Amino acid sequence: MGRFRFFLERTKTVRFVRFWLFLLLAVLLFAVLYWQVKPRQYELRLFDVAKETIRSPVTVEDKEATAKLKEEAAAKVADVYTLKKEYAENRVDLLSSLFAAIESVQREAEPDRPLGDMIAKLEERLPPEWLAYLSAAEWQRLLAASPEELKTAKEAALTAVHAVMSERISQAELDTARAEAAKELEYAALSPPLREAVAKLCRQAVIPNVVYDRAATEEKRRQAMDEVKPVKILQGQVIVEEGQFITNDVYRRLELVGLLESGRPSWTAAGLLVFVLLLLAPLIYYFRTETTNEKLSLYTAIFTLMMTTMALIRLLPSSGAVSIGYLVPAAFGPMLVRILLGERLAMMTTIIGAVCGSLLFNEEIGTAGAVSVSLIVYFLAGGLAGTFCLPKELAKANIWRAGVFVAAVNIVSLFSLLLLKNGRYSPTEIGLLVLMAAASGVFSAILTIGLLPVLEAAFGILSPLRLIELSNPNHPLLRKLLTEAPGTYHHSIMVANLAEAACEAIGADGLLARVACYYHDIGKTKRPRYFIENQIGGNPHDHLSPQLSKNIIIAHVADGVALLRKHRLPKEIIDIAEQHHGTTLLKYFYHKAREQTEFVSEAEFRYPGPKPQTKEAAVINIADSVEAAVRSLSNPSQEKIEKIVRSIIADRLQDNQLNECDITLKELELVARSLCETLNGVFHSRIEYPEVRKEKVKHA
């Protein structure tokens, strides 16, 4: 119950620290990027003189200007009038009715009846407005006409009105149309007075036959307004030149794009906050399974250094097509992460750094708050080149080579981007860009080499580069081991070969296992003659009691740990040196003591431990015993080697030596196979040369 409570408390502490570390990353990103993306505002008034050229930071629609253009387009559309063809029929019917009324009055009139009475009859049959078409004298002429003349007049009038009314007649064209109707009667066989009356009647019958179509007019105006393209203020467009007056229109556009200090809240900060959270989401997901915060703390430090470097370079002057962003050593952050934390996290760092860098150094349009695709490609190419170019076996020379490769990739990507833009650059600008791209790669290598030992010391990280340095035979401890205990040195080299291959077979850290093996028996240098691999001649243990021999043998672990700590070797190597025997039993001296007395405690002849805590320590524990056992064979064969390997592994399992590490039975099978393959390669059979056989016969 107590252990469970401790686990809960530790988990809460880990989550608490992790929360603050991610909060620190978010604040860092927000602070660095906000000064680039925040909208710049000006304190200007109408009719002020612009002190600098002001460009639009965004692309927005000028709705007021668009509405004005639409109104102008609608005003240019003429009214739509529709031809009413039925008007011609109606006016022809009207004339027919008039002549029919005249004919009926003539038929009903008594001979010699006065015309005044006939007009009175006609008035009874026609509406007053129709009677107003002609004067009384003109009506009398029509009533006095003979039936033949009246018939001729009717046909001529109907024909003239129908012909004229078949065409479009607007109010403006009415007089012309009426004149044409009267002209149609010029060739009619009528007396001049009668023709004049009929012509006047035709003129009155002709009316406009087109009417205003409101729906069609509004539709045409709507179409004209729809054809007007929105007026947009483009991102980067000059709103006012330096020295120009701030007119009403300029002031309105400045206010529209948000460049005037209006006191209204800006949503830029909220947008940037969401952007930062999206960038950090992959990191939060990546570190979700970590039980400690050492890696996240180290990553926070590297990311802080990367963003601080970008921010400092951002302060340098930049002009024209030569953006200072091409000088950023974008690869040093991913390279450090690749060395210290792994390739997958380095790729994520490359992507996040490329997005942030492109936002921070965007100068293509002279505005803030936009992402430059060119810089994203440039930063991605350099960062990925630095990540993938670093080999598994790291050394300073390899980091320098990676920096040169990054510089080459930067230059190639830079030229590809310049060609894609189809821009025209002067030789000076191209030379400066190439110089900056090359310097970016070189600076990445310099920063990586310079910061790596600082980070290793600050966070206690054992990097591959540090392991390579520790594997140098000229290290003081290895030279001490070689000169004072050469047998142990050779034994350590053999165990290193076995352990490295076995660790790589199960996915453990082979390089750590190799270097740890070099130092795991360094404590034997205190009393080298008491260990069999260093003995020439007699064995000093033959003259010692089993208890004293046991104390000497077991002491080499503590002596080695003390020596490693004195020389400040990494904790991982010290832990393996302390755990490489676990709590195994010194069987030889235990049984020797049992032969002398029966009252011997087995616990007294066991190593103090602790047991192996990692896969690497477990593999070294097995490989150490396997190498010593196989070396003691007079004529090792594949069968004997495999039997020894599997018996030692079975003994470790039965003795519960592997209970505290996370190695599985499947992985132990892989370890056994790897050890057998390596040992079979070392102890393979050799042919016996003739000279050797002759020499043997001669001595026999």
Feature tags:
single chain; 700 residues; mainly alpha; Hypothetical protein af1432; two-stranded antiparallel ribbon; two-stranded antiparallel sheet; rod-shaped; membrane; transmembrane; HDIG_dom; Metal-dep_PHydrolase_7TM_intra; Membrane protein
Give the helices and strands, then pairings.
Blueprint: H1 2-37, E1 54-55, E2 60-61, H2 63-75, E3 81-83, H3 86-108, H4 115-125, H5 128-131, H6 136-144, H7 147-165, H8 174-183, H9 192-205, E4 210-212, H10 214-226, E5 232-233, E6 238-240, H11 248-256, H12 268-286, H13 294-314, H14 332-340, H15 343-360, H16 373-389, H17 396-421, H18 427-459, H19 464-470, H20 476-484, H21 486-505, H22 510-519, H23 546-566, H24 571-579, H25 587-596, H26 615-631, H27 638-654, H28 665-682, H29 690-699
Antiparallel strand pairs: 1-6, 2-5, 3-4
